[in-house]
C-alpha cells in the first residue's frame, strides 16, 4: 500500500506498512500529529502527538468514530474531509483548527488529509497535523502591528504609496484614488501627476526626478485635485529602500496639511487686514493733522490733493464747493477733470461729483462699465458717456460728498487709470476722510470770512497815507504773517500835533482776528484824542491806561512805542509801554538801540515816564513791532542784536532813503526764517541840513 498523496508510485524495497514495529517507531517520534482512518471512518492508528490535539489517550481512539470522543468542530472537520476523499479520492489540505489545552491555553493546528491506496484502490485516509501555534501567534502580532500602523497613518491623514526604482507607480493606493477620484489605470505609472495642480506640477515632477537620480529623500509640497474638483494641500516625503547597494523600491507618505495651510492663510489674511486697517488709520490721522494746519480753502484743497496722491494713489483729484444760489458746483481744483465743462458744474448734470452731492452718499465706480451703469440710472446721455470714456484714461472713480452737520458743502473726486476693487473697509476710510475734509473746508471758509472782515477792519483803521511835513520824512512797511494769515493787532500811526511837532506810534494788540483788530482800533482812536489834547508821551500813556482799564479785558495785552519829534531839528521825547526800543540809524551805517526803560503794557498800574529822544539831521529812527525781531527760532534778545548788526551791511544809498532802509531791514531780518507774525515798521527820518537852511 502506498501513502503517496497524488500519483501512485511503487513501494520502496525493504519497507512494508504492515511492519508494525517500524510504523509505531516512526509515528511515536514524529513531530506532527498522525491518525489513520479506515474506509468506515474509524480510527485505526493515532500517535501521541495527535492526542495533544484531541486530549484523549491513544487507546481510546482505536476503532471509534470521531463523533464518539471529539469535540463537535473537530468532528465536523474530520468527517467532511473523509467524505470528500471517499467521493473524490483527492487530498484535503491546510485545514485550520484551534484547540484548548487542559491549562486553558489555545493551540492552533493545520491539518491535511491524504487518501491511502493499494492496488485495489483507497484503503483508508491518513491525517497529518502540524502545531502552528507559534506561527499563528507571530502572525497575530504582525497583524496587530499592521493594524496599529494603519490606524496611526489614518489618524495622521497620511496616504502611503510605493513606486518602482524608476519612480513608476506599480501598486494601488486606494486612499489616493478615493481622494482624487482617479481609476486604477489612471493612477498607475506616472498618472498621479495628473491630479497635481497645474501650477505645481512642473516643479513637483522635476523635484521627483532629481530625487530619483540622486537616490535622496524626496520632500515636497503640492496641491491635489479632489474628487469634488477642489484642491487640498499635501506634503510628501519618500525614501528609497536600498538592498545590496541597489534601490528596490520607493516608499512615500502624503500628509494632508490643508487645515494648517488654511489656518496660515487665514492668519495671513487677518494680518494683512490688520496691517491695512493700521495703515488706513495712520493715513487718516496724517490727513487729519495736515488738514488741521490748513487755514484757508486753498490750503485745504492742496492737502486733499496731496492725500489723494499719497494715501489713495489717485491719478487725478478734484475739489468743488457748492453754490446753492446758483445750484452749481464751483471747481476749486479741477485736477484735469475731463467730465466737466468750465469751472462750474450744473447740479442737474450727472457726473461723479454732482451725483455724490445730490444723493449725499459716496459714489464708487470700480470700472468703466460700473460708471456707465450708474450714470445711465441718473439720466445721463449715453452718447455723452461714451464720448467721455473714449477720451479719458480714467478707469475707476470715487465721488465723495463734503457734508457738515448734514449740509452739503461740495464734493471730492478721485480717479484712477486702472480699475480698482474698493472694499468695505476702503469705503469706510474714504467716508471718514471726506468727513475730515468737510470739517476743514467749513473751518477754512469761516476763517476766510472772518479774516476778510478783520482785514477790512484793520485796513480801515490804519492811515491810508502819512503826513508830509517839511524837515521830516516818514515811511512805513506792513507785512502780514504768511503762516498764520489771520490779521493781527499790529498798527502804526503818524500825525501832526497842534504845535507843529509830529507824533509817531507803533503798537501791537496781542491776539488775532476781529477781536484784536477792534481792540487796536479803540486804542488808536483814544491815543489820537489824548495826543491832540495833551501831547507829552507820559501823559498820553497815562490816559491810555485809564481808557484800557475801562474798555478792555484784563487778559488783553497791548504794547506800543510813542514818540514826539520836532521837524528839522529832530529833538523829541519817547515813552514805551512794554514795547521793544526804537533803533537809531546814523548816515554812516551804525545802528543803536535806545537805552531806556521798556515800561509795562497798557492797563498795568505804573507811573509812566518819558525820555529825551533826538533824531539828529541825516539820521533815521525806526519804530517796529516784535514780528521783525522775534519768531519761533529766534528769541527777542538775539533778534535785537541781529537788527543792530544788519544796519552795518546797508549801502550808503539805502541809509539816505527811509523807504529803501525799511525794505532792506525787513528783507534781511526775515531772510532764512518762516514769518509767523505781522511785521510793522515806521521810519522817522530827519534830512541833513542844507546851506539854505
List the helices and strands and how they pair.
Elements: H1 20-29, E1 33-37, E2 43-46, H2 48-54, H3 58-61, H4 72-88, E3 92-100, E4 106-118, E5 121-131, H5 133-155, E6 158-163, H6 174-180, H7 184-187, H8 201-214, E7 218-225, E8 231-243, E9 246-256, H9 258-293, H10 297-310, E10 316-323, E11 328-333, E12 344-346, H11 352-359, E13 363-365, H12 368-377, H13 382-391, E14 396-404, E15 407-416, H14 424-461, E16 473-479, E17 488-496, E18 502-512, H15 513-533, H16 537-551, E19 558-565, E20 572-577, E21 583-585, E22 591-593, E23 611-612, E24 620-624, H17 636-647, H18 652-655, H19 658-670, E25 679-685
Helix pairs in contact: 9-10, 9-14, 10-14, 12-13, 14-15, 15-16
